[in-house]
Amino acid sequence: MKSVESIEQIKKLIGESVHNGELSNNDLVQIIELCGSYLNPLTIATYARIHGISYNGAKKKRKTPLLGVNYIIDND
Questions:
Q1: 5-34, pLDDT tens digit by residue?
Q2: Residues 71 and 45 placed together within one structural domain of the fold
Q3: Are 13 and 23 within one domain?
Q4: How many Å apart are CA 59 and CA 55, to the nearest integer?
Q5: Number of domains composing the chain
């Protein structure tokens, strides 16, 4: 498992690369898509539909806000 220090280094590298013009918006989208492929984020409604449970039942799962929308991270 990576340490908090490693995570901070990654965040710093991305931030500096954006600031210096080394990463474009398209590059950032690709990074987000890569992260999404590992996380498999699902909206509450989608999670409920896939698992055959009610929306309220799905809301009881651990929600993770991402870009202003609540998702359920389903990467088990």
A1: 899 999 999 999 999 999 999 999 999 999
A2: yes
A3: yes
A4: 6
A5: 2
Nearest-angstrom CA–CA distance, 31 and 17: 13
Q: Residue 71's domain spans which residues?
A: 40-76
Average pLDDT over the chain reads 91
Residue 42 C-beta-side C-alpha neighbours within 13 Å: 19
pLDDT grade for 74, boundaries at 50, 70 and 90: confident
Contact, 28 vs 18, CB < 8 A? yes
- Are 9 and 35 in the same domain? yes
Q: Residue 67's closest CA among 46, 41, 40?
A: 41
pTM of this structure = 0.73
